[in-house]
Amino acid sequence: VAGGDTLTFSGTANEVEVAVSATDTVTVGLPNDVTIGNNLTVTGNLTVSGTTTTVNSETLTVDDNIIVLNNNVTGTPTENGGIEIERGTATNVYLRWNETTDLWQVSDASGTAEDILTDTNFETQIPTIDGGTF
Questions:
Q1: Residue 34 vs residues 30, 47, 54, 56: alpha-carbon distances, Å
Q2: What are 47-97's pLDDT values in tens digits?
Q3: CA distance 108 to 125
Q4: Which of 31, 58, 84, 126 can pair with 94 through a Cys bridge, CB separation 3.0 to 4.6 Å?
Q5: Are 105 and 112 contacting, i.e. CB atoms less than 8 angstroms apart?
């Protein structure tokens, strides 16, 4: 800065912090909580670390054909995993893997879990049909 002019550093609120120390060092950084207005495009990988990630979107598009749930489980599994559908004022419904019974389940409109029949659990789930047995 020539001729005694003043050079001012400033950042955008909630986006950039700027500080000048007594030794004339300028520090530019991000605040703890960053708000980005308008659109953000990430062209590389994006890693989100934390216990909650909220996606507030009308459409979610995932190119991968496998979605991994309970990714942090090690040792003996104890937590069910699945997909739940929010139904407004009606009871939510879901598709889940039940770790207690080792079966896939769906819930009906009352929220009751029903086992999905497979060739290995058919006889134990439905032992009689029309008076006959298996």
A1: 7, 15, 15, 17
A2: 989 888 888 899 999 999 999 999 999 999 999 999 999 999 999 999 999
A3: 17
A4: 84
A5: no
